[in-house]
Recover the amino acids of this structure.
C-alpha cells in the first residue's frame, strides 16, 4: 500500500483501534476512525491499566506482551506523564475474616494494609510491572494520530461493503465511507461489523470496577487478592493505586448479555456495595469512602484466549484486531504497530502474528 494513496477505515476508537491509527499515522497513513459512542467508551476507558512484562511468558501471548511492555515505556518517554504511566510493585495478598487478631506485623511500606488483608508474595517489581490510566492513554494515542491527519467520525458501523472479494468501504449510518483497507476493532461488538465475513465469534465478559479517592496517600502498589463476600461469592479483586491519589478496584463479574451499544452497559445493582466491602477489608484509608464512579464493561474474548490479529479470510483489504481480553491495554502498542506494518508493508515485522491469525480456528 502506498501511504499517499491509501484510504484506511478503522472501526472502533478503543485502545486497539487508536493504537493502530497512531502507528499508521507515523507511517504517513491518515486513517478514518469510526466510533458509535465516544473514544474509549467501553473497556478501554474502564480497565485497570495494569501492565506486566512477563506474566504471559508461558503462553502464545508472551512475545506480544514483552514487545508491548517495551513500547509502553517508549511511548511514555515520547508523550510525557500525561496519562499516568508509572512503574509499580505488585503483590499477592490474602484476606482474613473479620475479627482475626493474629495478623502479622508488616514493614512500613505496607502501612496502608491495616485491616484484614496481608501481602504474602511479590508478583512484580518496578522493572516488570507498570500502569497507565487507560482512558487517558487511549485518548492520547488517538489525538496524536489526529494531529497527524487522522479523522474521527462518530457514527454506527452497519457493515463492510465488499465487491469481487475486495473491500470497498464501510457502511456508517446508511452511507458508504470508501476504503482500500478496513480494520474491525470493535471489541465484543466486532461481530456486528463482521456480518457476512468469515470470522469466528468474539464474546464479551462483563466485569465491574470502581474508583475511590481516599484522603491518605497510597503507594504505587498493585494488589491481587482472594476474597469471599458475605454471601459466599469467591472473588479475585485487583487494586491499583494511581498517580494523583485515585484507587481503582475491580474483580466482580456478571453474565448479563451484551447490549446493543457501549453506553447501554450498566453495573449490577450491588456492585458498588460489594466492591466497597472489599476496599474496606483491605485498608482503613478506603473504608467507607464513597466511590467516584461504579462502572461495568465487557472484555472481548475468543475461545482460545488469544486475540484475533490479521487479515479477514477471503476478503482483500479487510483486517480484524480484537479479542485481547484482560490484556488489551497492555498489548495495544505492539498490536497497533504490527497491524500498521501488516497494512502498509503486507507483513508484520515487529511481532510474529501467526499465533493470532484469524484463520487459526
Amino acid at each position: 500500500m502506498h501511504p499517499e494513496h491509501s484510504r484506511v477505515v478503522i472501526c472502533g476508537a478503543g485502545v486497539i483501534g487508536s493504537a493502530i491509527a497512531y502507528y499508521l499515522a507515523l507511517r504517513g497513513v491518515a486513517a478514518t476512525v469510526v466510533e458509535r459512542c465516544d473514544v474509549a467508551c467501553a473497556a478501554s476507558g474502564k480497565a485497570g491499566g495494569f501492565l506486566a512484562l512477563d506474566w504471559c511468558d508461558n503462553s502464545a501471548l508472551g512475545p506480544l506482551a514483552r514487545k508491548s511492555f517495551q513500547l509502553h515505556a517508549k511511548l511514555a518517554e515520547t508523550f510525557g506523564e500525561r496519562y499516568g504511566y508509572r512503574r509499580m510493585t505488585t503483590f499477592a495478598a490474602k484476606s482474613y475474616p473479620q475479627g482475626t487478631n493474629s495478623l502479622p506485623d508488616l514493614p512500613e511500606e505496607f502501612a496502608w494494609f491495616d485491616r484484614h488483608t496481608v501481602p504474602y508474595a511479590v508478583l512484580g517489581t518496578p522493572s516488570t510491572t507498570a500502569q497507565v490510566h487507560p482512558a487517558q492513554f487511549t485518548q492520547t494515542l488517538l489525538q496524536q494520530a489526529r494531529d497527524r491527519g487522522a479523522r474521527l467520525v462518530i457514527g454506527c458501523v452497519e457493515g463492510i461493503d465488499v465487491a469481487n472479494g475486495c473491500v470497498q468501504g464501510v457502511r456508517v449510518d446508511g452511507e458508504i465511507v470508501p476504503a482500500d483497507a478496513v480494520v474491525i476493532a470493535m471489541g465484543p461488538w466486532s461481530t456486528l461489523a463482521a456480518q457476512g465475513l468469515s470470522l469466528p465469534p468474539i464474546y464479551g465478559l462483563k466485569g465491574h470496577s470502581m474508583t475511590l479517592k481516599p484522603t491518605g496517600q497510597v503507594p504505587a502498589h498493585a494488589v491481587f487478592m482472594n476474597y469471599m463476600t458475605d454471601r459466599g461469592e469467591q472473588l479475585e479483586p485487583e487494586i491499583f493505586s494511581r498517580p494523583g491519589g485515585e484507587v481503582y478496584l475491580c474483580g466482580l463479574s456478571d453474565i448479563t448479555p451484551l447490549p446493543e451499544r457501549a453506553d447501554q452497559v450498566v453495573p449490577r445493582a450491588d456492585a458498588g456495595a460489594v466492591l466497597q466491602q472489599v476496599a474496606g477489608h483491605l485498608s482503613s484509608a478506603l473504608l467507607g469512602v464513597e466511590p467516584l464512579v461504579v462502572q461495568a464493561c465487557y472484555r472481548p474474548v475468543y475461545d482460545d484466549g488469544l486475540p484475533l490479529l490479521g487479515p479477514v479470510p477471503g476478503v482483500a483489504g479487510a483486517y480484524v484486531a480484537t479479542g485481547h481480553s484482560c490484556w488489551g491495554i497492555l498489548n495495544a502498542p505492539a498490536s497497533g504497530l504490527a497491524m500498521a506494518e501488516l497494512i502498509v508493508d503486507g507483513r508484520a515485522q515487529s511481532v510474529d502474528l501467526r499465533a493470532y491469525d484469524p484463520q487459526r480456528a
User: Anything to note?
Assistant: The domain at 89-125+204-301 is CATH 3.30.9.10 (D-Amino Acid Oxidase; Chain A, domain 2). The two ends are 28 Å apart (CA to CA).
